[in-house]
Amino acid sequence: MLKSFRLSVNLSLVLLTLISGCSAQSNSSQQAVSQSENTTEPANQTNLVKKPEIPQIVSPDNPDPAIQQKIEQYINGIAGKGFSKESQGIWIQSGNTLLANHQGTVPLPAASITKVATSLAALQTFNPDHQFITVIGATGPIENGVLQGDLVIQGGDDPFFVWEEAIALGNVLNQIGIKEVTGNLVIIGKFYMNFEFDPLKSGSLLKQGLNSQLWPSAAQTQYQTLPPDTPKPQIAIAGSVQLSSATPSNLKPLVRHSSLPLTELLKKMNQYSNNKMAEILANSVGGAKVVAFKAAQAAGVPQSEIILVNGSGLSELNRISPRAACAMFLAIERYLQPYNMTIGDLFAIVGQDEGILNQRNIPSLAVVKSGSLNNVSALAGALPTQQRGTVWFATMNGGANLEGFRAQQEALLQDFVQQWGTVPSLPEELSPNPDRKNNTSRN
Fold it and tell me: Domains in the chain, ordered, with CATH?
């Protein structure tokens, strides 16, 4: 998993000014402060060129006869191989015109299309530049390189705190004079490292990451991806990893760690379909039911078309209609437009982005999310074409034919681009904001 995530990240580790007599914030107040500090207003609309109008979800009636006939042939081909028509769903629209619909409003097992709902709910809850804050503090003085007390980690729901973050944090603590800790490593709140949900395991991994003498092979491997002059931190913690539900009254903040902005976190989650990141983000929103509610509300579809038991898609009980899948992509597009971003900032662009779609034969420049789980294969997103413009689609297939369904999905999309024409470059409504690239490199 970590090797797949060997992408550089942008860290913001800022030393806090130590003010005599100030007390540490509680975990809830930390989150409130982080939200207020990371609130970003959309770009000033008066200074922008008028943006293209984003389609709305359309009526399920009266699809294009020619395209509908092609889709019926597609479904009949699947049925001819012994798979139920009732387990298949299709929704295709261009602009505000419905092109095809087969069970488009019926919620079907969606697998990782669920992550589209989690992405939309996260945006609705936070904002594109929201950062999850982890505060590191001490319960004693620092004397001659030794922290006389505990090193305390106040977690803040960061879903992407990995070896690189631990290494950078260790180097900052070395820089401010900490080489040893006489006390314990204390974990407070929701701290996840390397996607571990168990805070004790996360704390143990952090304890290793802060001291290069304890690095396992995975940490050594990740270190090799960093700039060659990156120091190796050495912080020896004498005590054990402990959990606490309360913030010590004598805690003094030392370091503030900001995660990647939410947009970049969602892009990584979706590119690699990282289930644990999705669960962490869904939990930060309020859980699967809240994700489903917020996603349906923002997408403008009935709640009955988005039914979730988790935020990742690791259950066939997660059901989303093909229409709702398209509606969520369109809702994300509408949400991002004032920020000069598109779905290309959140989802994989075929032929340009690394990720799990590398081995798929999906038309180049499509912006999509796939979903695969046991007897479920799904694909949804945007297909740029010359004649039809951006075509929004979702296909959900059920049955024990994962590779076969994938091949049929790819053949269908390739047929469409041959019919409607390929585009030489991404259209404006799918192009990611180039300024965001600065958020994906380590400084």
Answer: 12-37+132-259 (3.50.80.20), 52-128+264-432 (3.40.710.10)
